[in-house]
Design brief:
four-stranded antiparallel sheet, 43% strand, 128 residues
């Protein structure tokens, strides 16, 4: 594993991590540490992801710009994020990102694990 400081330039972000319909996910720090990874999530105006979870990975979200919503608990709980807000999405927690606004939403994502895991679901499976 790398024992030196690693920098990823904005121009080097890769749209090759696990994708969800309606969202652009760009890998920033992946496969450089066994314990943590980071990415950027961009939600286009009036878009939403599919319902998904991140497997064994805990996820921390930092809302960089725009106003988005994390939907969870089988669609019953909606929590808005504004610039500067943080959210914790526990491992296996089914959720959906929603952007109901006319502006892009950009979130910085940090996960426990070497590379981001995105498990897209057919719907709210925990409620079945």
């Amino acid at each position: 594993m790398a024992q030196e400081v690693q920098v990823t330039k904005a121009s080097s972000l890769q749209t090759s991590t696990g994708q969800t319909e309606g969202m652009i996910r760009q890998g920033a720090i992946t496969d450089q540490s066994d314990k943590i990874c980071a990415s950027v999530m961009i939600a286009k105006p009036h878009s939403s992801s599919t319902v998904h979870h991140h497997g064994e990975q805990d996820t921390i979200v930092y809302a960089l710009s725009g106003h988005g919503t994390v939907v969870s608990e089988a669609g019953k709980k909606k929590q808005d994020l504004a610039p500067g807000d943080f959210a914790l999405i526990p491992a296996w927690a089914e959720h959906q990102e929603v952007n109901n606004s006319a502006e892009e939403v950009t979130w910085i994502i940090t996960r426990s694990g070497r590379a981001p895991v995105v498990d897209n679901l057919a719907g709210w499976e925990a409620s079945k």
